[in-house]
Design goal:
With 280 residues, the chain is mainly alpha-helical. Helix content is 47%, strand content 6%. The chain contains 14 helices and six strands. α7 runs parallel beside α12. It is extended, with a radius of gyration of 26 Å. The termini are far apart.
């Protein structure tokens, strides 16, 4: 009940209790919980390891014995796929928790890395930062591209090949051509970088910095936001999350935005060349 009012579902529930005499009567109980509804299908939990410990034990029973225990009723058989989202620190905590060994042993870890393809990363930001959604302020060309490029570069591993820079690697991943490299070479680059995409800056962080640039006083006076403003907000002290390595903080804080902007222009035109000054 909400706000002192009874909805039709509550009314039906109490009517059934009055009819059958007890809320433990199966005819008066609604088997509409998440596990019941998902039976013979799939159930998904967000931040599953942040849930109450008591519920995690219910989750253990569901995964181990394929049974759940509705309130005041005997155990019920279920057959479903259980998917839970979490982050790596929480998962490592589970691995080190000796009291949750049973749940840990019945958990299959599937890594979902961040995007490492520039054009796909750009789509994420263009969905929220476009002329239809941002009224009264102009987003200058290449603003989103520069922010997306920086985010992806923090996620890539340094190439093992001496003649390949990180920025050239970004272009190869984005489907651009580079002399001496084929699709098979790109596949090899991905295979040798096991942790690629599992560390670095998240899209949420970049979206937050673009939003900060949009509401910045100086940006309000000008009536637009450009790559300079976004990179200035990003490079402020304590602005970078712990997932960004010190090497990247140093590299990007000292890099001039016009150089990044020129690279964005070249990538958009499909050029296969990268200025030697951009090698990192």
């Amino acid at each position: 009940m909400t706000g002192g009012m009874m909805n039709s579902q509550h009314l039906e529930y109490f009517c059934k209790i009055a009819e059958f005499g007890s809320e433990s009567d199966p005819r008066a109980f609604n088997f509409d919980g998440e596990f019941n509804v998902a039976n013979r299908g799939m159930i998904e939990f967000i931040e599953v390891l942040k849930l109450d410990v008591a519920f995690l034990y219910d989750l253990l029973g569901a995964s181990q014995e394929h049974k759940i225990k509705p309130k005041k009723f005997p155990q019920t058989d279920i057959d479903e796929v259980i998917i839970g989202h979490t982050n790596e620190p929480e998962f490592r905590k589970l691995q080190n928790n000796e009291f949750m060994e049973a749940l840990r042993d019945r958990t299959v870890k599937i890594d979902i890395p961040y995007i490492t393809k520039l054009k796909e990363e750009i789509k994420i930001y263009e969905k929220d930062f476009n002329a239809n959604k941002i009224k009264g302020k102009h987003i200058a060309p290449h603003t989103v591209e520069v922010a997306a490029m920086w985010a992806i570069l923090t996620r890539l591993e340094q190439p093992k090949k001496a003649n390949l820079s990180l920025l050239q690697k970004l272009k190869l991943y984005d489907g651009k051509t580079l002399s001496g490299y084929t699709e098979d070479n790109v596949k090899e680059l991905r295979k040798e970088a096991i942790r690629e995409g599992l560390e670095g800056i998240s899209p949420r962080y970049v979206q937050d910095k673009i939003s900060n640039a949009l509401v910045n006083d100086k940006a309000g006076e000008v009536g637009c936001v450009n790559p300079f403003m976004v990179m200035r907000v990003r490079s402020r002290p304590m602005a970078l999350p712990s997932s960004a390595s010190r090497a990247w903080v140093t590299t990007w804080s000292g890099m001039r935005t016009p150089m990044v902007l020129r690279l964005a222009c070249r990538i958009r035109r499909g050029s296969s060349l990268v200025p030697s000054r951009m090698n990192v």
